[in-house]
Amino acid sequence: MSKEHCFYCFDALVAYFEARPVVAPDFENSEYPLFVTWSTSEGRDLVLRGCIGNFKAMPLYSGLQEYALTSAFKDGRFPPIALKEIPSLVCNVSLLINFEDGDDYLDWEIGVHGIWIEFRDGKGRKRTATYLPEVPKEQGWTKLKTIDSLLRKGGFQGSINEDVRQGIILTRYQSRKAQSTYDEYIQSCE
Prior knowledge:
This is AMME chromosomal region protein 1-like. It comes from Modicella reniformis. The chain is of the alpha+beta class. The protein has helices spanning 3-18, 60-73, 134-139, 143-153, 162-166, 182-189; strands at residues 31-42, 45-59, 89-101, 114-120, 126-131, 169-181. It folds into two domains: 3-97 and 175-189, Hypothetical protein ph0010, domain 1 (Glycoprotein, Type 4 Pilin, 2-Layer Sandwich); 98-173, Hypothetical protein ph0010, domain 2 (Dna Ligase, domain 1). Helix 1 (3-18) crosses helix 6 (182-189).
């Protein structure tokens, strides 16, 4: 895992706006589940602009290119990233590893594990939601607050109680993560 993965995501985004092909990367084309996260740098803070990924292992070349664009333009929580925002962007790539079934909804460690939950909504429909390992720690959340937030993120609209939480099927995972600013990307191109 290296900044090269992030540089490739930046190149995919810039190539999209310039209507040109993406430059082929030098890293291995191994298969991983992955997430691409875009944020804007506002002083010392990063403000989320898009984060989408896939739990199915996919080749890094096609996976990173696809999710660099998907997270930039199709994260329904945010307007699509505009060309003028690119110089302020920070890219994070997370390659997901070490998937394990949790014994219950509390069987994970803040700052170590990402969690993926499966649950039934009030109408009995199966729903899922995930947070990458860094999210609960960055937000200062407890395990309970994280689980309740994930239920809401996944579309649960009813009252959250212990019975609802006990019905969760939890998978924990870890990630290898790299981060790059746009300026670092530009330096890598020179």
